[in-house]
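Quick log. Single chain, no ligands specified.
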Amino acid sequence: MAIPTWLKTLDINFKKKSMKKIFKYILLICFLPVFHSCIKNDEITFQGKVAEVDAASWNANAAGVTYPILPYLLPENRPVGTSRTSCAGDSTLRRLSRTTRVRINLVSTQSNKDETVGYKIFSSPITSIAFPATLGFNVTPVLPCQQLPQAAAAALSVSDAVAGTHYTALSGKVTIPANSSFGYIDITILNPGPTAGQARFIGIQLDSTGTVLPSPNYNKVGLVIDQR
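-> predicted structure:
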């Protein structure tokens, strides 16, 4: 039976309309990347303030933990004008040391008012540590952190330091002065007398109790005091 002319025309029109739709979809898909590239990508910048332990940002982490554990005086204890690393490894942190400083960095623009950073003391994750030999003043050249009496290199047993016995109790807050990028935790080391083969641990961890939050990556450091 012959197909009516009107039916053929309908079929042709239907095919033409279908092809036009398909062609439109193909064009839309092809131009999507162009449209996407025209959308403005707003640059996102961090507007907050965080604080970090300076020593944690440039010393290697100790084995098995995510922060450094240091048996030596930090560069913050160096005389003014000496280099950043002049004290690192020059002299061990000992019960004979009067005060050791831990620098806290403000990681943001400086504030026009004082900011505070909270911190707490945490327990030792280690039970022993290898101490390097102490450098005495008979070493040439004379370095800013050398001390007497000298002590030989040794592996010492580690336990937690006790506030009031091994160091003066700390406030739990450090102030970063207005228009400054640094604050300092001053830890006064006490001398309870020698204990052969022993060392004491002080862990400093920044927390959220101040006006500046702690960095998630550099918020801890461990210090170990030679008690010999």
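Helices lie at 5-38, 54-58.
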